[in-house]
């Protein structure tokens, strides 16, 4: 190979090397994947701090009065004696249809906070009734709760009555105790709700379930009547 030929080959190699270098410069650098954006944990919403604790009644009663009650004490005694056995059966039927679970389900289906005109509150149902003798004696919270807006709804008495003049009715005594942030000495409102019955107690051959359903419905109506009175602005006498 002569010198001229060698120089030509060297020139070609130089051109190839220069071309490769340019291509390397034009090739984009490899791109690393961007790190994932940091996520911010969203704190859970606090549960409702307000609570209303509900206790069912343990005391039921039934009283039937006829026309004899209008004839003085002797008439009333005779009237009571004549209906005593029937009233025992009606009391048992009342306690069965409105047992603790039945009362809890009925009140739990209502918007108690709205009816009582208090802050929206979580309903806490207590299935075990309070000792009736202690209801008016204990002024502290009946539940172990640190709620800053705490209240209690106690069903004190459930009373079936049939009067010759006025017919059948269900009367329910409620006690509402509003503590707020306090642990003792709440604001108390006590009162009855009362509404008429048409189906309860059922006679032999009548629909027992329909009568019981009516009883539950009237029980709720009793509460609504009580709540309207409890939330009504009080005026100084």
How would you characterize this protein structure?
By secondary structure, the chain is α/β, with parallel strands linked by helices. Helices cover 37% and strands 24% of the residues. It has five helices and six strands. Strands 1, 2, 3, 4, 5 and 6 form a six-stranded mixed beta sheet that branches. Strand 5 and strand 6 form a beta hairpin. Helix 3 crosses helix 5. The termini are far apart. The relative contact order is 0.15.
Offer a few descriptive terms.
6-stranded mixed β-sheet; 237 residues; 6 strands; elongated; alpha/beta; single chain
Give the N-to-C terminal Cα separation.
132 Å
Largest sheet: 6 strands, mixed
Q: Per the principal axes of the C-alpha atoms, what is the gross shape?
A: elongated
The SS-based structural class is alpha/beta
Order of helices and strands: HEEHHHEEEEH
Number of strands: 6
Query: Quaternary arrangement of the chains shown?
Result: single chain
Number of helices: 5
Q: Point out poorly predicted stretches.
A: 1-6, 16-32, 34-45, 67-71, 73-77
Residue-averaged pLDDT: 81
Classify the beta-strand content into a percent band: 15-25%
| Fraction of residues in H or I helices | 25-40%
Q: What Rg do the Cα atoms give? A: 40 Å
């Amino acid at each position: 190979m002569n010198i001229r030929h060698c120089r030509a080959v060297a020139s070609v190699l130089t051109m190839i090397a220069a071309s490769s270098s340019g291509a390397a410069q034009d090739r984009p650098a490899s791109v690393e994947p961007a790190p994932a954006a940091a996520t911010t944990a969203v704190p859970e919403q606090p549960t409702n701090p307000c609570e209303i604790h509900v206790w069912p009644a343990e005391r039921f009663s039934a009283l039937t009065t006829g026309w004899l009650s209008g004839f003085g004490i002797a008439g009333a005694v005779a009237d009571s004696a004549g209906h005593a056995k029937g009233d025992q059966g009606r009391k048992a039927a009342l306690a069965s249809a409105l047992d603790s679970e039945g009362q809890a389900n009925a009140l739990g289906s209502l918007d108690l906070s709205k009816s009582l005109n208090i802050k929206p509150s979580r309903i806490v149902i207590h299935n075990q009734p309070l000792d009736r003798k202690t209801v008016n004696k204990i002024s502290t919270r009946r539940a172990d709760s640190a709620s800053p807006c705490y209240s209690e709804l106690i069903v004190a008495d459930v009373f079936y009555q049939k009067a010759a003049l006025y017919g059948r009715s269900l009367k329910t005594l409620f006690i509402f105790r509003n503590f707020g942030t306090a642990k003792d000495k709440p604001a108390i409102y006590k009162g009855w709700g009362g509404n008429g019955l048409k189906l309860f107690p059922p006679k032999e051959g009548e629909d027992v379930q329909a009568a019981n359903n009516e009883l539950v419905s009237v029980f709720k109506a009793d509460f609504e009547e009580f709540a309207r009175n409890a939330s009504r602005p009080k005026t100084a006498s």
